Amino acid sequence: AAAFARRFDIPHSFDGAMSADPRIDALYIATPHPFHFEKARRAIEAGKPVLVEKPLCVSAAEARELVELARARHVFLMEAYWTDFLPKFSVLRKVLAEGLIGEIVTVMADHGEFFPPEHRIMRADLGGGPMLDLGTYVIGLATGILGRPDQVMAHSTRAESGVDGQTGMLFQYRGGAQAVLHTSLLSHTPCGAVIAGREGMITLAGKFYTPGPFVLSANDPSRTLTFDEPRSAYDGLHFQVEHMAWCLGQGMTQSPIRPLSASLLALETMDRARAAGHATRADAPFA
Question: Catalytic residue among 39, 54, 88, 207, which?
Answer without folding.
Answer: 54
